[in-house]
Write a structure and sequence with these properties.
- It is a single chain.
- By secondary structure, the chain is mainly α.
- It has one domain.
- The longest helix is centred in the middle third of the chain and has 27 residues.
- Pfam families: MamF_MmsF.
- Keywords: Membrane, Transmembrane, Transmembrane helix.
- This is DUF4870 family protein.
- It is a multi-pass membrane protein.
Length: about 120
């Protein structure tokens, strides 16, 4: 028989991985990012400490990414916005893959309040 505490922790880490996957999918299908941030907000408080850092990182990733998209969209009128949006896609991929790999190692995110990677 499985331990319900371990099962809950595995479920929570799976949800954190799912959020990173949803963020990556949002590059193609934008709405999955919103679903991801909702999951992160819901799971943030009932997770182990090391996973809280990931959920905090994911929430910040969403809002900072939203800011990059907003600024990039405004600047598209002067063509600089395309560079901002390309930077956003690369930034999102790096943050999501880095976070996903840290969860696989069962490690807390070292700097969940970072603006970069």
């Amino acid at each position: 028989m499985t331990d319900p505490v371990l099962e809950t922790k595995d479920d929570t880490s799976s949800m954190a991985k799912l959020v990173y996957i949803l963020y990556l999918a949002s590059i193609i299908v934008g709405l999955t990012g919103i679903i991801g941030v909702v999951i992160a907000y819901i799971k943030k408080n009932d997770s182990p400490e090391w996973l809280r850092s990931h959920f905090q990182f994911q929430i910040r990733t969403f809002w900072i990414g939203f800011l990059y998209i907003f600024i990039g969209s405004l600047l598209m009128l002067v063509l600089v916005g395309y560079l901002v949006l390309i930077f956003f896609v690369v930034w999102l991929i790096i943050r999501s893959v880095k976070g996903f790999l840290l969860i696989d190692k069962k490690q807390a995110h070292p700097n969940p309040t970072s603006w970069f990677f």
